[in-house]
Amino acid sequence: VLDGRFGPGMRLPATRDLARQYGLARGTIVAAFEHLRAEGYLEGRVGSGTFVRRVLPDDLLEVRGRQRPAPAAVPSAVRLSAAAERARLFGGVDDAPPRAFRTNLPAVDLFPTALWAQLVARRCRRASLSVLRGCHVLGHPALRDAVAEHLRVSRGVRAAGHQVAIVSGAQEALDLVARLLLDPGDRAGVEDPGYPGASGIFAAAGATVVSVAIDEHGAVVPRAADSRLRLVYLTPAHQCPLGVTMSLERRLAFLEWARRTSTMLVEDDYDSEYRYRGRPVPALHGLDRHGRVIYVGTFNKVLFPSLRLGFVVVPEALVERLAALKSIATRHAPVLEQLVLLDFVADGHFGRHLRRMREAYAARLQALREGAARDLRPWITLSDIDAGLQTVAWLGGGVSDEAVARAARAVDVDVTPLSRYARERTCPPGLLLGFGGVDETALAWGTRTLARALRAMRRRS
Ligand SMILES: Cc1ncc(COP(=O)(O)O)c(C=O)c1O
What we know:
A hairpin with a 3-residue loop joins strand 1 and strand 2 (49-52). The termini are far apart. Helix 14 (401-410) crosses helix 15. By secondary structure, the chain is an alpha/beta fold. The chain is built from 15 helices and 15 strands. The protein is globular and about 80 Å long. Pyridoxal-5'-phosphate (PLP) is lined by residues 104, 169-171, 195, 197, 235, 240, 268, 270, 298, 300, 310.
């Protein structure tokens, strides 16, 4: 208790368990508890166990003899691997409630939690021994088939269920891809500006990360001199962060280049389900005739971020190697969550949810457009997007997007500077504005408040 290992208010283990653990008579432990209770260190609540008192006698007397030990320093003798030294902490969730214009956040306020709870309860009631034992390393076969079917119909991905691996999300999929294809010193192409989560993984794997430019047709096919790339990471449906959709000509050119140079293309189809205009563009994977595309997708954005379920589709020849790599890290994704998701898809809720969300996001995007036109016209130009949950707001010349993000944060508005996505190429100052995570009222408040912050910035400068 004095060392702080049992903190204030903590419940102590049962006397019976302590007696067994230390090989003592239970009466000895009960006597020790009584002694500590009498001295004011412990308190008991009838029927609910023995707890450390919130205020200890030592605190009252201010004569604490023993100090809490200082946090242990990392012993200098621990030699870290090069990979551990290279890895950078990525992502993470803060505790603040969703606010305008948080990026990468779906409408958790509209998720049918009661329905999800029913499906969880039904699966728990019926949980058979096989559910408790585990499942195939690449996921529950029925869910893998359902994902393959969904991708065939909605994205033109032509793959059988056994080519689909269920993983914890796009991030795990990219980590597996890196371990599958990259050795330290290999070259990996990434879009620039592009998703830092991907370049971070490739860099941590020891690869040399090479920038791939973006133009109005999407990522630009690397020149012949760059042909020693092992893989190129692409977001063709909705380039992250600029929102460009890759043209058909460019897709065909990339596939032809990949075939000629024996490069693998990693297609991250992270938020293509939400398209507001025009016909859905089929995935790059559906055009591939030579097994050069690995397709990555996630349920964490279409359902809710903490679900942590996604998938990766690999060519037939890579399935076994992928299974080996997955098995030594996480064995398999949690079975219960996979089965609840399977029910959500098979019972038609997934399709209905996508349709409802498409309407909700279209309304939220419209609210952002109106708010930007009303409040932010002098400062920003909203880019015109067809799909996704976020859009770029270009800032007028001479303004630093980091400075704007700081000013916005001070008034509780969340904007992501575009410069954080740039690697070697400088992109014009801009902000990434998410519109999916909060409702129309919050978005209108966001544009008004951001305008106030920008006015104050201009006055100060
Ligand atoms: C382009 C892109 N790919 C992948 C992800 C990660 O998805 P997941 O949460 O499934 O790991 C994100 C997350 O924001 C993203 O922006």
